[in-house]
Amino acid sequence: MMDSILEAWVSANIERAKASWILGRGERWQPGKKLKLLFAGYNGTRNTGSDVRPEETVRQLRHILGADNVEFSVMSQNFKLTDGYFKGSQQVHLPDIFPPFIASEVPKHHGVVVVEGSAFKSKFANALTTMIVGSLGTAAAQNKLAVGYGSEAGHMDPAVAKMCGRYCKNSLIITRNEESRTVLRKLGVPTELGTDTAWTFEPQPPEYGRKVLQDAGWDGQLPVLIVCPINPFWWPVKPSLARYAVHAATGAYKESHYRTVYFHKSGSEVDAAFERYLTAIANAVNAFRQQRRVFVVMAATEQLDARACHRISEKLGGVPVFTSEQYDMYQMVSILRAGHMMASSRFHGIVTSMPALVPSAGITMDERIRNLMHDRGHPELLMNVDDADLEPKLIGALNVLATEGERIADGIGRTVVRNLKMMSRMGVYFQEEVQRRYPEFPTRKGEWNWQDYLPPLDAGLHRLIGMYS
Predict the structure, then answer these.
(1) DSSP code of 1?
(2) pTM for the whole structure
């Protein structure tokens, strides 16, 4: 019911924005002015992936378009949690009840860039997709730049899929895999093939991550196994005024309450599936550390994962837990890259560790990690969160990580460089779209190397490019 209200509300706002533009209202870009772009996404919840992506998109696009030519604003749901992020950009507050914000904020800019990865799918929340479609649709309705940058599409409920097809047909969505292009093409949405945007991220130096591990008890010698669990079974999040009223009055639904009017999926089946998942991971890690001497840590790269991390830690006798609530994205990724092996249900836990060639296995709830493992050529390192034999599969995968690390690292290095080249191509697509929308905007001229379309890279990435180009 509430999802339907949000979708109708946003749709009506887009129609009003179109009418307003026809009547001559709204911000129009003029030659000599800075191009004002709004970056839309799920930022400011200490989800490391959702914060790394806009960080790198902002860096890349500012590098391509020229810092003196642009003025960037990035959505944040909590300024305290994005303090120090997105340097050189203004941050604007995205409220939980977002339709009025989208209606008022988007027209102030000359375009919208969606930086959310899971942008077009109902798996996590129809409300998130509605916000994304509303942002793109409002910009496109006013004949402005409307680009999804490294976005992914999956199953959408019929109403939100129809909304996407109707209001994103004048947008350009650069997807991070071919499967997403197929979904969007069926809806009539223009696409190009790209990748994720986290590949170029530069965290704190390696010394930082190693010191954090040593302060937690690591001897500096044992291989470090980093485990990144989630709760894969309490999605999607849905708004409910009825639940919110009961929660506010009595405190009921405390365990499933996400925030304000939004609640996770809950019930005995969810709890039982979550417990099976936690137990399988804990048992597998325990069996592995009995076979091999390793230092095990848990990493919650999203605040919501802290509960899963602490539950598994308890089952393992109290191993260290690092959460994104304690560590910002620069610190967290440095910790991840200090590991020697990883088992993760977080896509960006794997992606952000790959530039350090950390051998990793994936325990997936959807297509993201599955696509990545197949892209790397490592399908044997892939499991599903609901596999009945998750425990023995994970034991096997951990042993492969321990014994075939060099082979796995080679596949990882090749994949990183391949995705850097794809991210460079995304920059070209974006520049071409800016030229199409705003022919008088001063874009680059002449011949450019593919690396010139990436933000400045650290020494580690330059080393990988030298090895695998």
Answers:
(1) -
(2) 0.94
> Helix, strand, or coil here: 170?
coil
Query: Could you tell me which residues come within 8 angstroms of residue 74 by beta carbon, excluding any fewer than 6 positions away?
Result: 38, 39, 41, 43, 54, 58, 82, 85, 86, 89, 90, 91, 92, 115
Rounded Cα distance between 56 and 352, Å, is: 12
Amino acid found at 123: K
Please state, rounded to an integer, the average pLDDT across all residues of the chain: 95
* Omega of the bond leading into 236 within 30 degrees of 0 (cis): yes
Contact between residue 64 and residue 431 where contact means Cβ atoms under 8 Å apart: yes
Q: What is the pLDDT of residues 109-130, one digit of tens each?
A: 999 999 998 899 998 889 999 9
* Mean of pLDDT values over 430-445: 93
Mean pLDDT for the stretch of residues 354-363: 98
Q: Is the distance from CB of 54 to CB of 43 less than 8 angstroms?
A: yes
Report the share of the chain in percent with pLDDT over 70: 100
E strands present in 64-193: 70-76, 90-93, 111-114, 145-151, 172-175, 191-193
Residues 231-244 as b/e (b if ≥16 CB within 10 A, e otherwise) read bbbbbbbbbbeebb
Separation CA 323–CA 298 (nearest Å): 8
Binning pLDDT at 50, 70 and 90, where does residue 443 land? confident
pLDDT tens figures, 218-243:
999 999 999 999 999 988 888 888 89
E-assigned strands of 18-155? 35-40, 70-76, 90-93, 111-114, 145-151
Measured CA to CA, the distance from residue 283 to residue 428 in angstroms comes to: 47
CA-based R_g, the chain, Å: 22
| Rounded Cα–Cα distance for residues 461 and 201 (Å) | 10
User: What integer pLDDT is reported at residue 447 of this predicted model?
Assistant: 77
Tell me the sheet residues that pair with 144: none
